[in-house]
Design goal:
The complex is a heterotetramer, with two copies of chain A, one copy of chain B and one copy of chain C. By secondary structure, chain A is α+β, with helices and mostly antiparallel strands. Chain A contains two helices and three strands; from the N terminus they run βαβαβ. Chain C has a single domain, classed as 3-Layer(aba) Sandwich (Rossmann fold), CATH 3.40.50. The chains are: A alpha+beta, B alpha+beta, C alpha/beta. The complex binds adenosine-5'-diphosphate and magnesium ion.
Chain lengths: ~80, ~750, ~220, ~80
């Protein structure tokens, strides 16, 4: 049983109020490591067995059609063990 | 773990069982053995332990709550009383209304968003279960000091959770409370109220009658969430030294609940159920045992049929799971096909899990093996009853001797500074930061919501019949005198209904207290219940239901006794309601009721760290005459506006009135400091057209309510004697507190 | 005139939209998400709510509902189509109008009475208003910030396709204070605030919202 | 400039309504690859230069305190180039 991960992030030019809120909250808690924070979505998709190329192609399609909105978001697909 | 069955329990009567870890006391465990004539199976033990927990069995409160029945007024308005999921009240024109408050305090501290969200979800299912369409929610909330770091964690999460769930269900939020006090810091209170409406003929009850009828589980699948939540989260202090129990918090799915509501209403409309129960605290243990004991008592359930989200769950866990958004219905076999069809239309998971049987055994099997065989009444209703020791705490006499010393303003500058300071203090400041996160418009029937005295919804678009609901608690007064405090909260909630011209009809309550094992807390509780029961009897209002939440404390420190009282009223034509304020100049302002020196427990005293003194005494006869006056004033069209006085006294009331429609006022007050700051109960400010002077005078005289002209409306300032406060300045003070605190 | 009001699972303001249609003098017809038939309606409203819980992105799942197919086809042929709030989000997800609706900049659900100016009265849904008219209707949403790229924004501005703009402080971070836009042809309108909650000052802040519904009835008579 | 990624997912035993909604939508669009979908959050944190061990330890702390609620969520921290 493998896991396919789709990460969806707002395009860099789109304002990310959630990331901004986190970036502002960190220093209030004494954390000073971040120069910037962006928040996105992570989908963990389980498939039976090892994903086939056809399945991965399907996941790409689903990511484009459903999991992300290409007007404002980018996505990446990868297999995780 | 191997399956524990009834036959194994009979074969090994002495196996040791972890009853203490499940929260049962040795004598309670002994009683279970006595009832069964053998040791319980592990599944039975699970059921008894959750059902006999404080949260489900009311074991510490039962002996006191009896008074609501014993002292009850006879009224035809009460169609369903205490004991069912929620009481039902006749509001005329064939309509019935059901309403109830519940607490979700402890889960909301651990996971503010989900705790609050599932609190709303739970109370809405209670209302739905009665056969009603839920039409509005309210959320009385209590937090630690507004500027405390943990309040900044907890409050935004709770508000977002209340909104997130209620908004997604399409239920307008029509009111609530936001109160701060240090005793709530480690133990915030999240009370949620829901109102529902139905026709008389649609009332549903939680009973499984008719052998051969099917037991149907529908809604979300069952997962491992909230297992033990009912006995752990709702009944134990966080510091309890007992073994660590799974602090699993439930996550809600409001979308599933919305679909469940529509699906259920369609099922009700076609009259497809004999009885119905939602799955809340104690999950299936509660639903099956209550449904069975509500009927003749016999039921067979095949537990392995329950659809699971997590296939590794054991039967014990399935019985205890508090997965949200589930309902259990009793359906006649001839109607099951249609029932399934409607579920399919709404894409709702549905499974027949058993049937009603003759006799009085609740039998639950797991893959054919009998794992539960109990008389359901013993699980659902015959839990332990405690007569816990109670004793008046020592602080009561001590605080009664304290003399309140607070500065009272006299000069123009002092008056202005006082009014601005009160307007901005977190307990009185504008709550829009909170309420703007709630949808108050959905369903298109909201007539009043925050910042009005009560929430009001229209229930018939043709006749304009409506209901109003208000919730109130004044924990400062309850701390000084819990008996009077409960009566005063009742009076205030009823008054908040009546200022709009609605007639109070029925009462619900949520009693939030510390540990019942503390005799002082138990005394506060007993006194509050006695006060509320006496008050309801005197005012002729039935208590239709409620909720008790104990163990609200941090370490040894209990929260202030906080009986939240909800009052429901009816108004025959919502178009004629009296608004809480005025939007034009030239009206006369009157104060109804007399002002005494009542600074004890007042917000002004609180702001000066004075928590002592003697609480006011409730004069319910006068309150009832005031209510009659307010209702008559509405029907006779005497009032242009009416707004009650409560926390913050006249200063707060005037602030709220002038800001409501941005219309100023000029008032002249004798003894100005006390007039502005005293919180004597039973007072209302009304605005009338001068042409109504005679009518008002005669109504007030006939009700023997003191009447004082205090000023007139108009202008862009609030002028009090020589002090002039511009509305801009006042609004700034009133509205900037919450955004500054919570971002 | 028959106006269809679509109910997706999780739709909340369908009854309000139907009531608004009736108040305006039209006949409302309930359309079910799973029924790919428009039952002869002359126009369609996609009302507000949280269709499918709005868990993924608002409107992302409902745009694929069976009923959307005939709606998209008819709207492309000129049938008046109004998406309110969640309905606006569905229109954007279905690419019937450009851009996307994103999380409010304050990150809270926001419900308040909102002033708007009507900036284009040449659409099927706004002809009852006067150019520049200021109206007050409820705004209530968690993801109402209108976003698009600069090019699209310039196009919308240039072609006068912004039909309503927020007055005063930006409530949610929408670009150029956009509250509503229309397609090229003016038959499809997406609007974030809720006119259906402002048809009667008893239950709403005003009766200003009625204009959207009377507009479409006029447009259909023509 | 490196990127630290914090992935926050609901614990497996906790209901994930978002993942459920996606899992239900996929087959309606003809995508049949998934046996289960979980949806979580992805935070991309930018730091100046290569993250130091102390910074990473701080990120762990921030993830536990701010980015997740350990009662219902798990998180992982890793550096991405
Ligand atoms: N948590 C809340 N949710 C909804 N409405 C609230 C909440 N808190 C306060 N309100 C509303 O704000 C207004 C003012 O509250 P409050 O000062 O407590 O009223 P009162 O003193 O008349 O009981 C009321 O309309 C109340 O219903
Ligand atoms: Mg009030």
């Amino acid at each position: 049983m493998a896991k396919i991960v789709v990460d969806v992030m707002l395009k860099p030019e789109i304002l990310d109020p959630q990331g901004k809120a986190v970036a502002a909250a960190l220093p209030r808690l004494g954390f000073t490591f971040a120069t910037d924070v962006r928040q996105g979505k992570r989908f963990e998709i389980e498939v039976d067995g090892d994903p086939t190329p056809a399945q991965l192609a399907d996941v790409e399609k689903a990511a484009e059609k459903l999991l992300s909105n290409p007007v404002i978001e980018n996505f990446t697909v990868r297999v995780e063990k | 773990m191997s399956l524990d069955t009834v036959s194994k329990a009979q074969a090994n009567p002495d196996s040791s069982q972890p009853f203490a870890e499940l929260g049962l006391k040795p004598d309670e465990y002994a009683r279970i053995k006595e009832i069964l004539g053998r040791r319980p199976t592990s599944s039975e033990l699970a059921m008894y332990s959750v059902m006999w927990s404080e949260h489900c069995s009311y074991k510490s409160s039962k002996v006191h709550l009896k008074q609501f029945g014993d002292k009850a007024v006879k009224t035809d308005a009460l169609l369903v009383g205490i004991g069912e999921n929620a009481g039902v009240v006749d509001v005329g024109q064939g309509y019935a209304v059901t309403f109830k408050i519940e607490s979700h305090n402890h889960p909301s501290f651990i996971e503010p968003y989900q705790g609050a969200a599932t609190g709303v979800g739970g109370i809405v299912r209670d209302i739905l279960t009665m056969g009603a369409r839920p039409i509005a929610v309210m959320d009385p909330l209590r937090f630690g000091p507004a500027d405390a770091a943990d309040t900044r964690r907890v409050l935004p999460g709770i508000v977002a959770g209340v909104g997130g769930y209620g908004n997604c269900l399409g239920l307008p939020n029509i009111g609530g409370e936001v109160v701060f006090d240090e005793t709530y810091l480690g133990n915030p209170l999240v009370n949620a109220l829901c109102v529902g409406v139905m026709k008389h003929s649609d009332i549903k009850l939680a009973k499984a009658a008719g052998a051969g009828n099917l037991v149907v589980l529908y809604g979300a699948k069952t997962g491992g969430d909230g297992i033990g939540g009912v006995s752990v989260l709702a009944s134990e202090t966080f510091e309890s030294k007992g073994p660590a129990k799974r602090p699993a918090v439930q996550v809600g799915d409001p979308f599933v609940e919305k679909v469940l509501i529509e699906c259920s209403l369609e099922i009700f409309a076609e009259d497809l159920v004999v009885g119905i129960q939602d799955l809340g605290g104690a999950g299936l243990s509660c639903a099956t045992s209550e449904l069975a004991s509500g009927g003749s008592g016999g039921m067979k359930v095949q537990l392995d049929k329950v659809p699971l989200r997590d296939p590794s769950l054991s039967p014990e866990e399935i019985l205890m799971s508090e997965s949200q958004e589930r309902m259990c219905a009793i359906v006649e076999p001839s109607k099951i096909a249609r029932f399934l069809e409607i579920c399919e239309k709404w894409d709702v998971t549905v499974t027949v899990i058993g049937e009603v049987t003759d006799g009085n055994h609740l039998e639950i099997t797991w893959n054919g093996e009998l794992i539960v065989d109990v008389p359901p009444r013993t699980v659902a209703h015959d839990g332990p009853v405690y007569n816990r020791p109670l004793a008046q705490p020592a602080y009561i006499d001590a605080v009664a001797k304290e003399i309140i010393k607070v500065p009272l303003p006299t000069t123009a500058d002092e008056i202005k500074a006082t009014v601005l300071k009160l307007a901005a203090t977190p307990n009185l400041a504008d709550k829009s930061w909170v309420t703007d996160q709630y949808d108050r418009y959905v369903q298109g029937n909201s007539i009043q919501s925050q910042p009005d005295d009560s929430g009001m919804v229209r229930i018939d678009e043709t006749t304009h019949l409506g209901v109003a609901v208000a919730t109130d608690a004044n924990a400062n007064w309850s701390y000084l005198n819990p008996y009077e405090g409960a009566k005063l909260a009742l009076a205030e909630a009823a008054r908040n209904i009546a200022t709009a011209g609605a007639k109070p009809l029925a009462v619900t309550n949520c009693l939030n207290f510390g540990s019942p094992e503390d005799p002082g807390v138990m005394w506060q509780f007993a006194e509050s219940v006695r006060g509320l029961a006496d008050g309801c009897l005197e005012m002729g209002l039935p208590v239709t239901g409620g909720n008790v939440s104990f163990y609200n404390q941090t370490g040894a420190v209990a929260i202030l006794p906080t009986p939240v009282i909800g009052v429901l009223g009816v108004i025959d034509d919502v178009r004629t309601r009296t608004p809480m304020s005025f939007d034009r100049a030239g009206l006369d302002l009157y104060l109804l009721g007399e002002t005494e020196n009542d600074l004890a427990g007042s917000e002004w005293a609180y702001m000066h760290n004075q928590r002592g003194g003697i609480a006011p005494t409730a004069d319910l006869q006068r309150e009832m005459r005031l209510i009659d006056l307010l209702v008559a004033g509405r029907t006779k069209k005497i009032f242009s506006a009416a707004h009650d006085l409560s926390q913050g006294g006249l200063a707060a009331t005037l602030t709220e009135m002038v800001l409501r429609y941005n219309t100023g006022a000029t008032v002249q007050l004798d003894n100005v400091g006390l007039s502005l700051l005293s919180e004597t109960p039973g007072r209302v400010v009304v605005a009338i057209d001068p042409a109504q002077t005679a009518a008002l005078t005669s109504e007030a005289a006939s009700q023997k309510i003191a009447l004082t002209k205090i000023g007139t409306t108009g202008g862009d300032s609030l002028v009090i004697n020589d002090a002039k406060i511009s509305l801009v300045e006042l609004r700034k003070a009133h509205t900037e507190t919450f955004p500054k605190l919570f971002g | 005139m028959k106006i269809g009001v679509v109910t997706f699972p999780g739709t909340l303001d369908d009854r309000d939209a139907a009531r608004a249609v009736r108040h305006a003098g039209g006949e409302s017809v309930a359309l079910w998400h799973n029924d790919a038939d428009l039952h002869g309606v002359d126009a369609v409203i996609l009302p507000g709510g949280f269709s499918y819980g709005d868990y993924l992105r608002c409107g992302a799942i409902s745009r694929f509902s069976p009923v959307m197919e005939p709606i998209i086809k008819a709207a492309q042929g000129g049938m008046p189509l109004l998406g309110i709030c969640n309905g606006f989000q569905v229109l954007a997800e279905a690419h019937l109008i450009p851009g996307a609706l994103t999380r409010n900049h304050e990150l809270h659900f926001l419900c308040r009475d909102q002033k708007l100016t009507i900036e284009n009265t040449n659409t099927a849904w706004t002809s009852s208003f006067t150019q520049g008219q200021e109206i007050l209707i409820p705004l209530k949403n968690g993801e109402g910030a209108y976003m698009c790229d600069d090019e699209t924004l310039a196009m919308l501005e240039g072609e006068g396709r912004i039909i309503a703009r927020y007055v005063g402080e930006n409530p949610n971070g929408s670009r150029n204070l956009i509250a509503g836009i229309t397609n090229e042809r003016g038959n499809i309108v997406g609007l974030m605030p809720h006119p259906e909650h402002a048809i009667d000052s008893l239950t709403g802040p005003s009766a200003d919202g009625l204009g959207f519904f009377t507009s479409v009835l006029k447009a259909l008579v023509k």
